[in-house]
């Protein structure tokens, strides 16, 4: 069955990390087979694996046969992309148990072998870079790049005329501590602001008062190919993204700053978050101390001025556009993979 496996693997859907840290920026150079599309310089050999000459890239994980073949090839130099702090898994009780188990299995399986073999570890934060530098590995920090266009500001006209205000929390269930915190903030906001409607992601009931609230919409989690398509149509007026000081959060990226711009929402962020330096407080977003009261007051302040909220969204969009520039990723991968101009 190896032949069948090798035929199927390149056509399997990629994970978000693959698109955000490699494929989006390099898409014009990637072909499923040599010469199949674009310049055909990079060959996709698995869902999350690529080869260019004697250079290979594996993003996070892939089919066992694909990874094993790359690891066995003595002529390949390997770059490995990872965007989670797998060393912090056991020390963070806020992670859902099933997710923790999957991360441990990854860490003790493919991840260990790929890190050992890799010439360079590509990560999404200085915290993760330090993790691997302490293991004697060369590292490169890259920010994510979204292909989806950043939203305009036309969706703010209805709220300036007194219409409903759409507030989103787009953190997944992997944000255990953050979700428990933000649910308390959202409950207070719903009680105080009759115009507010809440959207959040969950495949099952939340187990709190938000479940029965008529202005709360639970969005079912979608596979990445569907999500990246549907997110183009979603529009919100404010997005909340608390990052509590729990071990696993220290390895996360600035991804939500760009994702929020895709859905047209200025954000509220934790003041002590590593990437809070990218938020101009009151200009491109808002910063709050990690107390429910501080977040509730920040949200009410933002929503009290719809015209100012639109201005904040426009400024956040402009800044996100600079963060979302694919040039740095392209330059790194062009050099790393020894691509011809």
Please tell me about this protein's structure.
With 341 residues, this protein is α/β, with parallel strands linked by helices. Helices cover 39% and strands 16% of the residues. Helix 4 (97-117) links the parallel strand 5 (77-81) and strand 6 (120-123).
Using the CA coordinates, give the radius of gyration. Answer: 21 Å
What fraction of the residues are assigned to beta strands by DSSP? 15-25%
**Helix percentage:** 25-40%
The total beta strand count reads: 13
Task: Break the fold down into its secondary structure elements and pairings.
Layout lengths: L1 H7 L7 H11 L3 E2 L10 E5 L2 E4 L2 E5 L4 H9 L4 E5 L15 H21 L2 E4 L2 H8 L4 E4 L15 H4 L4 E5 L6 H17 L3 E6 L14 E4 L4 H7 L7 E4 L13 H8 L4 E4 L15 E3 L3 H12 L2 H18 L3 H10 L5
Parallel strand pairs: 1-2, 4-5, 5-6, 6-7, 8-9, 8-11, 9-10, 11-12, 12-13
Antiparallel strand pairs: 2-3, 3-4
Tag the structure with descriptive keywords:
341 residues; alpha/beta; 7-stranded mixed beta sheet; 6-stranded parallel beta sheet; 12 helices; 13 strands; 39% helix; disordered N terminus
At a glance:
This protein is of the alpha/beta class. The chain has helices at 2-8, 16-26, 64-72, 97-117, 126-133, 157-160, 176-192, 224-230, 255-262, 292-303, 306-323, 327-336; strands at 30-31, 42-46, 49-52, 55-59, 77-81, 120-123, 138-141, 165-169, 196-201, 216-219, 238-241, 267-270, 286-288.
């Amino acid at each position: 069955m190896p032949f069948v496996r090798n035929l199927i693997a390149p056509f399997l859907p990629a994970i978000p990390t693959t698109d955000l840290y490699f494929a989006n920026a390099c898409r014009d150079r990637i072909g499923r087979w040599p010469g199949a599309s674009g310049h055909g310089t990079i060959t996709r050999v698995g869902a999350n694996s690529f080869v260019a000459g004697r250079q290979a890239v594996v993003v996070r994980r892939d089919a066992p046969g694909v990874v094993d073949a790359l690891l066995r090839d003595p002529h390949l130099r390997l770059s490995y992309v990872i965007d989670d702090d797998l060393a912090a898994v056991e020390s963070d009780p806020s992670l859902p148990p099933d997710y923790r188990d999957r991360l441990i299995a990854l860490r003790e399986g493919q991840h260990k072998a790929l890190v050992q073999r890799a010439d360079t570890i590509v990560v999404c934060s200085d915290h993760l870079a330090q993790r691997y530098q302490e293991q004697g590995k060369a590292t490169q920090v890259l920010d994510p790049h979204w292909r989806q266009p950043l939203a305009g500001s036309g969706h703010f006209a209805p709220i300036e005329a007194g219409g409903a205000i759409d507030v989103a929390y787009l953190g997944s269930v992997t944000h255990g501590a953050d979700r428990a915190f933000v649910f308390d903030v959202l409950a207070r906001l719903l009680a105080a602001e009759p115009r507010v409607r809440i959207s959040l992601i969950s495949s099952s009931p939340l187990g709190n008062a938000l479940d029965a609230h008529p202005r709360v919409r639970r969005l079912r989690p979608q596979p990445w190919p569907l999500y990246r398509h549907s997110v183009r149509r979603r529009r919100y007026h404010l997005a909340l993204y608390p990052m509590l000081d729990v071990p696993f959060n220290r390895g996360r990226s600035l991804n939500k700053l760009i994702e929020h711009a895709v859905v047209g929402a200025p954000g509220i962020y934790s003041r002590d978050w590593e990437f809070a330096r990218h938020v101009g407080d009151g200009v491109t977003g808002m910063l709050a101390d990690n107390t429910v009261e501080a977040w509730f007051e920040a949200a009410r302040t933002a929503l009290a001025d719809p015209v100012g909220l639109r201005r904040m969204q426009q400024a956040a969009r402009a800044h996100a556009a600079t963060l979302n520039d694919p040039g740095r990723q392209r330059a790194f991968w062009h050099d790393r993979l020894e691509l011809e101009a």
